[in-house]
Each structure stands twice: as structure tokens, then as C-alpha cells.
Design a protein that fits this description.
Elements: H1 2-24, H2 28-37, H3 39-42, H4 45-48, H5 53-63
């Protein structure tokens, strides 16, 4: 079981790296799509901490129950 846990952690850290790179490159739409498709991973605090500050804010807004009107 430990191997599978390590493998999953590696996949999540790789995904976080891609999201963080998209944010750094100002590719916010791509970051948003990737976060949206993998939202369940970011609800885990250990995984969430892998995201950069901007990606964490995006995740918080996407998982918020609040609806924002412009």
C-alpha cells in the first residue's frame, strides 16, 4: 500500500508543479481548468500546500459555497 500512496503523492506533486508553472506564466485559464478537473486532490491539506499562493486562492474560490456576482 505504501508504494501506491507514494505513487499518488508523486502524481499530485507533478500536477501541482504544472499548475504552479501555469500561474507563473500567467496562463490562468489553463491553471483554472487543471484545478477544476482535479479539485478533489486539493481538498487534502497536504496536497493543497503544494500549490503556490495564487493557485491556493483559485482553489479556495472554486471550492467556496459563496456565489460571486460581478
Amino acid at each position: 500500500m505504501e508504494f501506491m500512496d507514494n505513487f499518488k503523492r508523486f502524481k499530485v506533486s507533478s500536477l501541482a508543479h504544472v499548475i504552479n508553472e501555469d500561474v507563473r506564466n500567467r496562463e490562468f485559464r489553463y491553471a483554472h481548468e487543471t484545478i477544476d478537473k482535479s479539485i478533489e486532490h486539493w481538498k487534502d491539506e497536504v496536497n493543497y500546500e503544494l500549490l503556490c499562493n495564487e493557485a491556493q486562492i483559485m482553489t479556495e474560490l472554486m471550492t467556496s459555497d459563496e456565489v460571486f456576482d460581478s
